Prior knowledge:
Blueprint: H1 3-26, H2 28-37, H3 44-73, H4 76-93, H5 102-124, H6 127-130, H7 136-163, H8 170-188, H9 202-215, H10 221-250, H11 256-284, H12 286-306, H13 310-338, H14 344-373, H15 376-394
Helix pairs in contact: 1-2, 1-5, 1-7, 1-8, 2-10, 3-5, 3-9, 3-14, 4-5, 4-8, 5-14, 7-8, 7-11, 7-13, 10-13, 10-14, 10-15, 11-12, 11-13, 12-13, 12-15, 14-15
Amino acid sequence: MKDRSRIFIWSLYDFANTSFSIVVVTFVYAVYFKKTVAQNLPIGDLYWSISTSIAMFVTAFIAPILGAIADYSTGKKRFLLFFTLLCIFSTSMLYFVREGMILWGIILFVLGNIGFEAGLVFYDAFLPEITQPKNFGRVSGYGFAMGYLGSLATLAIIYPLISNELIKETFPVTSVFFLVFALPIFFFLKERRTIVERTDSYFRIGVQRVWSTISHLKNYKNLMFFLIAYFFYIEGVNTVIFFSGNYASTTLGFNSSELLIFFLTVQTTAIIGSILLGILADSIGQKKTIIISLIIWLITIVLAYFITDKNGFYIVGLLAGAAMGSSQSTSRSLMSKLTPQDRKTEFFGFYSFFGKSSAIVGPLVFGLISYITKSQRLAIISIGFFFLIGIWVLRKVKDDELPISQ
């Protein structure tokens, strides 16, 4: 199979899984949970932040071990299938969540989010297998661009449902969309397999390999600087993703149709940001490109705090989309560049660990500040500090340094 075909099939999974991200995490279910399930009470933000934190905590804990197991057993595709089906099933079951069913609403969201986030560990680890290091930036950008195209396609499909206030019906539709476009990666993309003699259980092997990596972290100092920086700045990105819908709905009074238009705007600029800054990353380096995207994030946060009208918030959406697409795609390509080839899935497990464990803190901070002060505007300012710390640590990363296998 030619490189272009492999890249297209791989990126179709991005096209598929972002249907869950936009409908469940960011837009429809996020608002439905606050307004309907939690009966629009102020504590709804805190419930939502707890839900996201639980999901991210579980994913952060299991991701490095699963990644190590997949490296040893060359079983990325099997793990990816399991977590994909978990996400799809949980999403479809959200149809049955009604007003006041907070516990079930949390449980199903947590399971779906674990499936979505854990699956990304194995999906991301395919990147070094489908292209050369010199193309990591643009190929990662293509994947994220396809993901945002998937978001646009999903929003277009559910538009009639939202217009007719058929909110719950969007969840099974989303699960079908995810399933249909995820299938090609399992049928047509082959993973590189090597025969490895197994002397112990996969779990013990996974734990041993993770411990070995932790024990030798001093040999991966450059990678560790990047992961620490990533921990902080992706915390800000995740918090924006989790609460942008609730912020626009609660603070600015967006209705469902206005929210749909807003997120269409965000996804459109995210596509442009993913592609253009992905190409830029291959020219000037991933680190410089990430710093540019984080500066855009800081400007976005300041504008979101001061803007009080709906039209002005669309400008915030334009900037947020460009920053979101570029910061996520370029981070993935830099991780691929800094990661030793023979431990790629294990290290992508650590990449997931840092990203998901960071998302435990950010949403909780936002939810607590919002609940205590009764002001989402004060809560949104807290996000800026995560981006500032991320920029400061990222300055120490050498993105021209080749990884050393241990």
